[in-house]
Design goal:
Helix content is 37%, strand content 19%. The protein has ten helices and 16 strands. The protein has helices spanning 36-44, 51-68, 72-83, 90-104, 112-138, 164-173, 190-201, 214-219, 245-255, 286-289; strands spanning 9-12, 15-19, 30-33, 146-150, 177-183, 206-209, 225-228, 232-234, 239-242, 259-262, 268-269, 290-291, 294-295, 308-311, 318-321, 324-327. The chain is globular, with a radius of gyration of 19 Å.
């Protein structure tokens, strides 16, 4: 993976340095902290977001919680605090439990902070490797030079090298992607703010569209395939992703267009067998009634604001992980 001129997070000077994604694309502001509570708040505020990045950030946060106080009760307090930040993203719990296993198996004389920090770095490095492999495996979905539609943000702001974005970027580099339509992705506009930012940085031709524009592009046969990420995938291949993803899957089914998901295997929750079991995060109505702090309708109006929707497995043409391309019916290994 080539070195980028931006990154979601990095461990520097015994602290976590992360890009405040709420201020993009206007301001690229990096925040440096060694306070696990500040990291937890950043995850809740979506200053850091994307399932893999959330997991990586939580791993570093647990290590930092042990830097000054390595007592067992302090670990559990930090673990519990981080576990409630984003309930849908299974990568969060996967990473927290990886760290918990290391903590619980350390010898009494072990350096807790150093060992946990080593594990957090390993999780980050493994994610970068998985993103590279997803990009490689994803090349097989392109049957010709294609126009791609994507939803939300799945680039290096969401994972070390990107999930669905890694496939798009690799496809573009190989001459298999001509251009990208990026849904704006209401209500937080991760597409028009973040995906557009990353497409621009990588010099990939793109156009931003409103979420409701996608259907007209399908009707005019201007889309060759759709690829998104996922925050949790069940054992049978049902997937939860940013609200609006299910709309695209239904449109693809009607118009005969392939619909793909790219996600690391840590996103697959084999303890769940059906999308109805996936917890869906409900967020503040303020995300609908205002944009960047500017009121666009009355704050008193009632709102329904689920952060995610679910897509049944039979609507998904293929799921790309670091292990390869899986197709319906799904049997992950």
């Amino acid at each position: 993976m080539k070195k980028r001129n931006y990154f979601a997070l990095a461990f520097e000077n015994e602290s976590l340095k992360f890009l405040d994604q709420t201020k993009l694309p206007f301001v690229e502001e990096y925040i440096l902290t060694d306070d696990y509570e500040r990291i937890a708040v950043a995850i809740e505020r979506l200053e850091m977001r994307g399932a893999p990045v959330i997991g990586i950030a939580a791993a570093f946060a647990l290590a930092l919680a042990m830097k000054q106080n390595a007592k067992k009760e302090n670990f559990q307090i930090a673990y519990n605090r981080l576990a409630v930040t984003r309930p849908t993203a299974v990568n969060l719990f996967w990473a927290l439990n990886q760290m918990k296993h290391v903590f619980e198996t350390l010898p009494d004389n072990g350096n807790v902070y150093e060992r946990l920090l080593l594990k957090a770095k390993e999780i980050q490095q493994d994610d970068a490797m998985m993103c590279d492999k997803m990009g490689e495996h994803g090349l097989s979905i392109f049957k010709k030079k294609s126009v791609v539609l994507t939803h939300c943000n799945t680039g290096a702001l969401a994972a070390e090298g990107g999930t669905a974005f890694s496939v798009i970027k690799k496809g573009y580099e190989e001459g298999l992607v001509s251009s990208v339509f990026a849904d704006e992705t209401r209500p937080l506009l991760q597409g028009s703010r973040l995906t557009a930012f990353e497409l621009s940085k990588n010099k990939i031709p793109f156009q931003i569209i409103t979420d409701s524009t996608a259907a007209s592009l399908f009707l005019k046969k201007e889309i060759d395939l759709v690829i998104t990420g996922s925050d949790r995938i069940t054992a049978n291949g049902d997937a939860a992703n940013k609200i609006g993803t299910y709309n695209l899957a239904v449109l693809c089914k009607f118009h005969g267009i392939p619909f793909y998901i790219a996600a690391p295997s840590s996103t697959i929750d084999t303890t769940l067998s059906h999308y109805s079991e996936i917890p869906i995060e409900l967020r503040s109505s303020k995300e609908i009634t205002s944009i960047n702090g500017k009121q666009i309708t009355l704050e008193s109006y009632p709102c329904y604001n689920p952060s995610f929707d679910v897509t049944p497995a039979e609507l998904i043409t293929g799921i790309i992980t670091e292990k390869g391309l899986f197709t319906f019916p799904y049997h992950f290994q």
